[in-house]
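Renewal narrative, Specific Aim 1. Our central claim is that a sequence can be written position by position from structural information alone. The example that follows is taken directly from our test logs and has not been curated for this report. It begins with the C-alpha cells describing the chain, in the order in which they were read.
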C-alpha cells in the first residue's frame, strides 16, 4: 500500500471513530439501552451527553441533540425510575433553554402533572399550568381548565370560579368552556349555595355541550331539587341525564332513592306528627349527597 493510500485509510478510520463518539451516536446508544429496559444506564448515558454539550451556546445542529437528551432523561427519570425531583430538573432545563416553544410548554405540563399527581403540591402545579394557559400553546384552554380544577380540589371555590370565568371569557366557544361552566356550578354546590348552583347547572345544559357534560349538569340540578324536596322534578332530570351519563347505574340508584322518599311521604297520615318526623329522619339518611 502506498504511503498516500495508507494515509487515506487512517483518515477514514479517524472519521469513523469520531462519528461513533459524536453526540448523535451516543444518543442512539442511550436510546438502545432504554429500549432494552436498562433505564439507569440509559440515564447515565444521557447525562454524559448533556455534560459534554453543556447549557451554553452550542452549534445549531447540536441543540436538537441536547433537547432530545434532556427530554429523554426527564422521561426516563419520571416514567421509568420514579425520580420525580430529578425529572423536574431536566424539564426545567428545557423550559430555560428553549423558552416559548412547544417543547417548553410540554415540559411545564409534565412538571405540573408531577406536582399534582405525584408530589401532592397543587399550588406548584397551578403555577406550571397557569404558565401554559397564559402563553400561546395550542392547548392553553385545557390548562386553564386544569388551573380551575386544582383550585376546586384545594376547596378554594371562589378562585375556582374565577379561573373558570377567565376561561369562558377567553375561549367562549371551546369544549373546555362547557366544562368550565359545569365546574362553576359544582363549586357553588360544594358551598351549599343551591340557588347559584342550580342556575349554573341549568346554564351548562343550555350551552348544548357534549352528552357527558350535559348529563353531569342535569345530575347536579337533580340533586339540588332532591335536597329541596322537589322530588318529581329530580326524577325527571335524573331520567334525562341517563343516556349520556358515564355511570348510569349510579343514576338508577339515585332515582330509586328519590322514589322511595316520594312514596314514604305519601304514606304519612295527615296530622301524624310522629310518623312524619320518623319518615323525615329516614329520608334524610338516604338523601343524595
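The sequence written for that structure reads:
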Amino acid at each position: 500500500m502506498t504511503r498516500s493510500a495508507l494515509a487515506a485509510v487512517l483518515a477514514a478510520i479517524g472519521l469513523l471513530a469520531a462519528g461513533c463518539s459524536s453526540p448523535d451516536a451516543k444518543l442512539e446508544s442511550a436510546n438502545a439501552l432504554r429500549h432494552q429496559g436498562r433505564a439507569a444506564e440509559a440515564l447515565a448515558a444521557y447525562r454524559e451527553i448533556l455534560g459534554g454539550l453543556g447549557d451554553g451556546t452550542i452549534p445549531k445542529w447540536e441543540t436538537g441533540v441536547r433537547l432530545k437528551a434532556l427530554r429523554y432523561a426527564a422521561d426516563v427519570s419520571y416514567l421509568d425510575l420514579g425520580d420525580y425531583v430529578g425529572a423536574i430538573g431536566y424539564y426545567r432545563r428545557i423550559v430555560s433553554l428553549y423558552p416559548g416553544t412547544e417543547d417548553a410548554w410540554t415540559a411545564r405540563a409534565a412538571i405540573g402533572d408531577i406536582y399534582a399527581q405525584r408530589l401532592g403540591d397543587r399550588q406548584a402545579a397551578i403555577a406550571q399550568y397557569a404558565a401554559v394557559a397564559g402563553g400561546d400553546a395550542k392547548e392553553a384552554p385545557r390548562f386553564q381548565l386544569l388551573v380551575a380544577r386544582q383550585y376546586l380540589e384545594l376547596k378554594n371555590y371562589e378562585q375556582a370560579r374565577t379561573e373558570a370565568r377567565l376561561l369562558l371569557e377567553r375561549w367562549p366557544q371551546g369544549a373546555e368552556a362547557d366544562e368550565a361552566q359545569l365546574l362553576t356550578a359544582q363549586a357553588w354546590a360544594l358551598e351549599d349555595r343551591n340557588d347559584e348552583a342550580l342556575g349554573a347547572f341549568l346554564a351548562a345544559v343550555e350551552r348544548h355541550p357534549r352528552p357527558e357534560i350535559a348529563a353531569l349538569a342535569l345530575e347536579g340540578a337533580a340533586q339540588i331539587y332532591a335536597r329541596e324536596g322537589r322530588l318529581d322534578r329530580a326524577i325527571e332530570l335524573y331520567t334525562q341525564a341517563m343516556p349520556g351519563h358515564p355511570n348510569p347505574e349510579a343514576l338508577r340508584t339515585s332515582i330509586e332513592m328519590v322514589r322511595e322518599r316520594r312514596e314514604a311521604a305519601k304514606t304519612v297520615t295527615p296530622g301524624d306528627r310522629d310518623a312524619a318526623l320518623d319518615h323525615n329522619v329516614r329520608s334524610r339518611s338516604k338523601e343524595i349527597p
